[in-house]
């Protein structure tokens, strides 16, 4: 098994044990990212989220090549809305609420086109997909059990939006004892100032609830590990 690798991160370098690390991709759903979707209908500029797709696609490819556990999440609710508390349901302008008809089907309802993940980041066969009714990925899901089953202790946290579901999930994970590295160019917000401050908040005060690092640092670590894995290493016997 590969040794932990030290990565450059904020606020300080961190030893990453890639064998016990999972890539968590939060809510990269059409309802949030596509023009005409729920996010845009609320007056948001979706291009600010779409810029996450390219670096995250590269990070996902590197994670898959390194055979890292990949977990996708989707925020959404049952068609009868029985898992959506009134306090969440009754928010926002009428006709733009969860369950209302939208351009991509009923807004944030499981099974609808808009609820699913954008094509570029579609889960591969065998990857875990966690459907979550809340902002945090641990609330009312089996994420904790999945991570325990795989012996995971560190998380690469990516997705949208930085200050809502990424923050909530990272805080939940931190409280459960996971070390979280939030990948700075693979998380996105509709609000540039929330993006900047959201990342700063994580790493402030000595890393109050996590670390931040750009995807390039993580891709380099994953690529090094893939190159050193037994399936690609030249066998000892062939080395003179
Ligand atoms: C929001 C999310 N912003 N995935 N959801 O409602 O951040």
From TrEMBL:
Leader sequence residues: none
GO molecular function, a single term: hydrolase activity
InterPro entries: Isochorismatase-like_dom, Isochorismatase-like_hydrls, Isochorismatase-like_sf
Keywords in alphabetical order: Hydrolase
Chloroplast as UniProt keyword: no
Keyword Hydrolase included in the entry's annotation: yes
Domain Isochorismatase-like: 21-208
Protein name, as recorded: Isochorismatase family protein
């Amino acid at each position: 098994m590969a040794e932990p690798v030290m990565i450059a991160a904020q606020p300080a370098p961190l030893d990453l044990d890639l064998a016990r690390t999972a890539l968590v991709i939060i809510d990269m759903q059409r309802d949030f990212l596509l023009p005409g979707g729920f996010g845009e209908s609320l007056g948001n500029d979706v291009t600010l989220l779409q810029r996450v797709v390219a670096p995250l696609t590269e990070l996902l490819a590197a994670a898959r090549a390194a055979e890292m556990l990949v977990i996708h999440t989707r925020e959404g609710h049952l068609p009868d809305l029985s898992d959506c508390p009134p306090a969440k349901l009754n928010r926002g302008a009428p006709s733009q609420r969860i369950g209302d008809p939208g351009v991509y089907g009923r807004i944030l309802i499981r099974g609808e086109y808009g609820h699913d993940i954008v094509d570029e980041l579609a889960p591969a066969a065998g990857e875990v997909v966690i459907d979550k009714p809340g902002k945090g990925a641990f609330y009312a899901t089996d994420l904790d059990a999945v991570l325990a089953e795989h012996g995971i202790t560190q998380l690469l946290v990516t997705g949208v939006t930085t200050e809502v579901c990424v923050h909530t999930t990272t805080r939940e994970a931190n409280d459960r004892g996971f070390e979280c590295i939030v990948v700075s160019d693979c998380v996105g917000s509709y609000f540039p100032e929330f993006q900047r401050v959201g990342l700063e908040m994580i790493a402030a005060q000595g890393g109050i609830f996590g670390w931040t690092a750009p995807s390039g640092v993580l891709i380099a670590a994953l690529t090094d590990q893939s190159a050193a894995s037994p399936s690609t290493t030249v066998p000892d016997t062939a080395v003179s």
